[in-house]
Amino acid sequence: MDTMAVQVRRLARVYGDHQTGVRALDGVDLDFPRGSFTAVMGPSGSGKSTLLSCVAGLDRPTEGEVVIDGENVTFWDEDARTRLRRERIGFVFQSFHLMPYLTAAQNVALPLRLAGRKADPRLARTLLDHVGLAERAGHLPGELSGGQQQRVAIARAFATEPAVVLADEPTGALDSATAKDILRLLRTAVTELRQTIVMVTHDPVAASYADSVVFLVDGRVAGHMAHPTVDAVAGQLAHLDELVAAVAR
């Protein structure tokens, strides 16, 4: 059985003319094993969000391939990529993106409905219980704190048992104490639910919850770090010039 949830090979994304345009990604090769938690870091404009967009099928690569669950999805048409996002990819955003007129339980069940599957209310309750919000199942987003809304968003991301959860700055809008609660939830999802998470972040504390860190610079992979700590990540980010020099060689 393939042990990789996501693989990208020679991935490039050029905006504008192929020769003179901006290369947001430039020949990226990465493997994301099943049941792993990877943080993606780098300076602004390094290609972090473009990487997530290409994996999610929101943006089509200029070159290279994206393989999810062993299937090459790079050249799928828009309908197929929409189904991919609905059924096999979970999303957690900085700004939660909950439907304001749906309850917490209904928000969690929404991906199932969009995928044309029966939304079992017991599953929504189970997922909300996993994130510590079973008693808030009937509350609207406006009745929840920011941290609680993000917990609902995480439960929603797990609803379809996706191949991978893509998290884009999931703690960026939260205070430090609430952010740590959210990161512990993501960590638990990896260890207990065997979810695969790829998280873009600028925060060394957030990265320290991951199994590994990938550093991007100028659209290229500039380094890897296993078993990251806050100090080690912060130290690497403080010497980005060395990463840039390494990419240039």
TrEMBL record:
<dbReference type="GO" id="GO:0098796">
    <property type="term" value="C:membrane protein complex"/>
</dbReference>
<keyword id="KW-0067">ATP-binding</keyword>
<dbReference type="GO" id="GO:0005886">
    <property type="term" value="C:plasma membrane"/>
</dbReference>
<feature type="domain" description="ABC transporter">
    <location>
        <begin position="6"/>
        <end position="243"/>
    </location>
</feature>
<dbReference type="GO" id="GO:0005524">
    <property type="term" value="F:ATP binding"/>
</dbReference>
<dbReference type="Pfam" id="PF00005">
    <property type="entry name" value="ABC_tran"/>
</dbReference>
<dbReference type="InterPro" id="IPR003439">
    <property type="entry name" value="ABC_transporter-like_ATP-bd"/>
</dbReference>
<dbReference type="GO" id="GO:0016887">
    <property type="term" value="F:ATP hydrolysis activity"/>
</dbReference>
<dbReference type="InterPro" id="IPR015854">
    <property type="entry name" value="ABC_transpr_LolD-like"/>
</dbReference>
<keyword id="KW-0813">Transport</keyword>
<protein>
    <submittedName>
        <fullName>Putative ABC transport system ATP-binding protein</fullName>
    </submittedName>
</protein>
<dbReference type="InterPro" id="IPR003593">
    <property type="entry name" value="AAA+_ATPase"/>
</dbReference>
<keyword id="KW-0547">Nucleotide-binding</keyword>
<dbReference type="InterPro" id="IPR027417">
    <property type="entry name" value="P-loop_NTPase"/>
</dbReference>
<dbReference type="InterPro" id="IPR017871">
    <property type="entry name" value="ABC_transporter-like_CS"/>
</dbReference>
<dbReference type="InterPro" id="IPR017911">
    <property type="entry name" value="MacB-like_ATP-bd"/>
</dbReference>
<dbReference type="GO" id="GO:0022857">
    <property type="term" value="F:transmembrane transporter activity"/>
</dbReference>
